[in-house]
């Protein structure tokens, strides 16, 4: 029998190559778990017999189920397309020497830099602030040598792919949060749409977007499995109120958004339990609730430290 290992913060190892509607609309949060068994036979029937046919000739019940499946799929596709451009890919580098210029810094990865890990983040505002987990950028945040570098790859509002250096703005190890800033003059960014974690319910659908193992813009789906969990922070303290989900979160997902069915960010994907000795996710994954994030990030942007550290 597999033994669960320790809680793992999901910074990828070295790689080579808005508020949701009120409770009256909670019926919209139909999960795949509830629908899977009921609709499997209908879906199989549809794809086998009616893929190229007009479903109007079938019974109303079958036609309705097929239509609902298509609507759900279309909704997921639109959700990803509307949110993925706000998610960034963070690469943690160690330089062999201190670069003499910005242009040399941007070329450093190919010439004299070691990739130490990868992670995710998301665009907070149009000024270039990027929110991620502290453990994704911990080496940069504590660097005194000038040899640590974070490269941020993103897409602007006009679908242009951009890679830029991410400068550390502030961080809070107690809540595993950090803010980077990219300087993109002339490029318009698309920030995420923030939701709330106050009205979440166990069983509602959720989606994780990130870069597991360096595979950019990966979407995984699941449900909210639990609320009010407690997970350890990088400095050993407790992060309370964490969201538990079975949406797959793996190395490289850290810092990416957990979103609801409306495309609103409800948490930051942070950690997972792994089976001892395998490094594989057990399906017990955790995100920092967005209400906590909204409370802390403005202080990090303005002061560089959390409110409690300024006095």
Question: What percent of residues adopt helix (DSSP H or I)?
Answer: 10-25%
Write down the overall geometry: globular
**What are the segments in which pLDDT stays under 50 over at least 5 consecutive residues?**
15-47
Order of helices and strands, N to C?
EHHEHHEEHEEEEEEEEEEEH
* Quaternary organisation: single chain
Task: Give the mean pLDDT.
Answer: 81
Number of helices: 6
Terminal CA distance reads: 50 Å
Largest sheet: 7 strands, antiparallel
Strand content: 35-45%
Q: Round the Cα radius of gyration to an integer and report it.
A: 21 Å
Classification by helices and strands: alpha+beta
GO molecular function: serine-type endopeptidase activity
Family: Belongs to the peptidase S1C family.
Organism: Olea europaea subsp. europaea
Keywords: Hydrolase, Protease
Walk me through what this model shows:
The chain is an alpha+beta fold and 311 residues long. It is built from 6 helices and 15 strands. It has helices at residues 32-49, 60-83, 102-106, 108-111, 134-141, 290-303; strands at residues 4-9, 87-95, 113-123, 129-132, 148-155, 161-165, 167-172, 177-181, 193-194, 205-210, 218-232, 238-245, 257-259, 264-275, 281-289. Strand 14 (264-275) and strand 15 (281-289) form a beta hairpin. Helix 1 (32-49) packs across helix 2 (60-83). The relative contact order is 0.19.
Briefly characterize the structure.
With 311 residues, the chain is α+β, with helices and mostly antiparallel strands. The protein is built from six helices and 15 strands.
């Amino acid at each position: 029998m597999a033994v669960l290992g320790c809680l793992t913060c999901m910074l990828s190892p070295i790689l080579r190559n808005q508020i949701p509607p009120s409770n009256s609309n909670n019926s919209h949060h139909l999960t795949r778990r509830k629908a899977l068994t009921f609709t499997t036979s209908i879906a199989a029937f549809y794809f086998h017999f009616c893929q190229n046919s007009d479903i109007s000739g079938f019974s109303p019940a079958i036609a309705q189920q097929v239509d609902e499946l298509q609507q759900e799929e279309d909704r997921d596709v639109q959700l990803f397309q509307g949110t993925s451009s706000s998610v960034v890919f963070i690469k943690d580098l160690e330089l062999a020497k201190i670069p003499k210029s910005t242009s040399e810094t941007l070329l450093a990865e190919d010439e004299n830099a070691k990739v130490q890990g990868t992670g995710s983040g998301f665009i907070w505002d149009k000024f270039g602030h990027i929110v991620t987990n502290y453990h994704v950028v911990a080496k940069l945040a504590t660097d005194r040598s000038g040899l640590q570098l974070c490269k941020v790859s993103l897409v602007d509002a006009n679908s242009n792919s951009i890679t830029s250096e991410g400068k550390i703005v502030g961080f809070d190890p107690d809540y595993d949060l950090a803010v980077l800033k990219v300087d993109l003059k002339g490029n318009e960014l698309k920030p995420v749409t923030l939701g709330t974690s106050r009205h979440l319910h166990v069983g509602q659908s959720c989606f994780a977007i990130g870069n597991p193992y360096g595979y950019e813009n990966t979407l995984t789906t699941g449900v909210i499995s639990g609320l009010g969990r407690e997970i350890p922070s990088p400095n050993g303290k407790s992060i309370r109120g964490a969201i538990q989900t079975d949406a797959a979160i793996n190395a490289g997902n850290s810092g990416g958004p957990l979103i609801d069915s409306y495309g609103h960010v409800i948490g930051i994907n942070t950690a997972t339990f792994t089976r001892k000795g395998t490094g594989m996710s057990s399906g017990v994954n955790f995100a920092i609730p967005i209400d906590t994030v909204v409370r802390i990030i403005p202080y990090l942007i303005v002061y560089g430290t959390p409110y409690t550290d300024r006095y």
